[in-house]
């Protein structure tokens, strides 16, 4: 897996190509398990603490030895996420069929495509799947209905500020674990330093007592 993460971080090959190469090296893993593994924070030494009551899900430092660094892990995640965005629906989709690829067929569950057909009064655009499926919807009406639905989610006056606060609080709650871990590490270091100082103090105290005792004995002998 070290080799897998190293190759993914380089960004020269796709995840599937690296999986195939890893299989040739002896890795026994399905495609789904492979992508689950390379998303698992366990490999960088952190474990996921599930959400519990009012506490959000977070990751904490594990007790096991990390296989890779956190920097390497998150570099790989960024590369995987960027590739995922690149394979999405093209942003050059014509405005008449802007929802192409985002609508699901109610009959077969497939993603609807779109095309135009010529009628008596001109061309008409439809969202559809295949002729065998039978799903066919006028794009003009679907787009208008979608815009009407979106208007229902416009925030009322004063609500936008609440949205911002909610998102900010959520972000803080997700990053608090990192801050808390850092505070714990600093406290542990400080405690260890205090123990070292106390140990040094005890050592020099005992050494001084021994030296004084020897000096007293020598003085008494000479006297």
Describe the structure.
The chain has three domains: 2-86, Putative Large Serine Recombinase, Chain B, Domain 2 (Hect, E3 ligase catalytic domain fold); 95-151, no CATH class; 158-223. 54% of the residues lie in helices and 11% in strands. It contains six helices and five strands, in the order αααββαβββαα. It has a three-stranded antiparallel sheet. A hairpin with an 8-residue loop joins strand 1 and strand 2. The longest helix has 64 residues, at 159-222.
Features:
single chain, 223 residues, mainly alpha, Hect, E3 ligase catalytic domain fold, 3 domains, 3-stranded antiparallel beta sheet, two-stranded antiparallel ribbon, 6 helices, 5 strands, 54% helix
Would you identify the CATH architecture of the largest domain?
Alpha-Beta Complex
Beta-strand residue percentage? 5-15%
Strand sequence of the main sheet, in spatial order?
A: 3-4-5
Element pattern in H and E: HHHEEHEEEHH
* CA distance, first residue to last residue: 76 Å
Which spans have pLDDT < 50 for at least 5 consecutive residues? 86-91
CATH superfamily of the largest domain: Putative Large Serine Recombinase, Chain B, Domain 2
**What's the level 1 CATH class of the largest domain?**
Alpha Beta
| Counted beta strands | 5
Q: What structural class do you assign from the helix and strand content?
A: mainly alpha
The number of helices is 6
CATH topology of the largest domain: Hect, E3 ligase catalytic domain fold
Number of domains: 3
Helix content: 40-55%
